[in-house]
Amino acid sequence: MARVQLRNVEKVYGGTLKAVHGINLDIRDGEFMVLVGPSGCAKSTTLRMIAGLEEITGGDIMIGDRRVNDLPPSKRSIAMVFQNYALYPHMKVRGNLAFGLRIAGRPRAEIDAAIDQVARILEIEPLLDRLPKQLSGGQAQRVALGRALIKKPGVFLFDEPLSNLDAKLRASMRVRITDLHRELKAQGLSSTVVYVTHDQTEAMTMGDRICVMQSGRIMQVATPKELYNHPANLFVAGFIGSPEMNLIEGAIDNGSFRLGSQQLALGEAVLSRLSAKPGEVVLGVRPQHLALASEGPALPARLLSVEFMGHEVYLHADLEGHRIVSVVGADEYERLGQTDQIRLIPDLKSLHVFDKPDGRNIVLRGGSMAA
Ligand code: ADP
Ligand code: MG
Known about the structure:
Radius of gyration: 25 Å
Structural class: alpha+beta
Strand content: 25-35%
Number of strands: 20
Mean pLDDT: 93
Bound molecules: adenosine-5'-diphosphate, magnesium ion
Helix content: 25-40%
């Protein structure tokens, strides 16, 4: 069992700087949990406390059935992979892979067999007799992964392991890591993963669940789909999704969203699903849910610039002083012709409504808003 539990975990640096504010998180055995958030939100601090590399100043951490607060990293059944690989520069790849098992006093034959197996899985057999400085970034990262894998830990801890790689390699390593996790699970090996990244694409594509953090606090823990469809608050709404969700301040009264001189009728289908009486709100519309209207009621906007992405086009427009983005099909954009006056219509069943003072999403969960 390699379940990981954080109970009211706090971290105060140097007696004054509170980096982690009493967080609670339950990571299931075998789960791939991603910690995501902007730089400085305490992802690394949290991971390092799980690893035992950083003392906790309050609360409890459990790995499996054990309270590990006072256990050194070597006794926690964890293996960590860092952004900078942290390979021993004077040891060949083979030596780097063997290191952990050698100091644990494992027999030579067992170590050799383990190296062969891990090298085969990660396709690093031809690299075994090279030094780290003779490796590319992607190769070094696979060796670092191998060094974690060979320990057969209960919990893998990753701290931004792909951040130093170029975009193409990053994309292929994402798949390699999630495939590896799935294979280990299929073999019945307990392989819980806690994976730290600031990159929402990594989080969305890799996580079974995602824990979104801001300033040492947890904003939401949910599956990628749930985060996308029901962000709990403005912070999560703005952080998850690409391009970013349009967040438009205005007011709801008389069943319509009022924005400057414009009005958008929301209808019962939306209004009946609000958990609080709306007033001053922030309307959230993903760019993918904001379409060009050919007829009927719509919001007039002025086109500012256009980004061609291939089959899609990102339209940047001004809506009553708000800069907004709409993602439309390339053919739809073609039909617009030479004009900077466009009319946009949000998909009402995919609207998000956030209460103005506290940023809470007040749309009730469960199914779409369609009547
Ligand atoms: P992240 O990994 O999300 O970028 P960190 O966990 O590295 O964030 O940092 C969280 C906060 O704790 C930041 O304000 C950072 O400056 C502070 N911090 C991190 N490590 C230390 C340290 N060793 N001493 C003092 N403050 C630290
Ligand atoms: Mg960090």
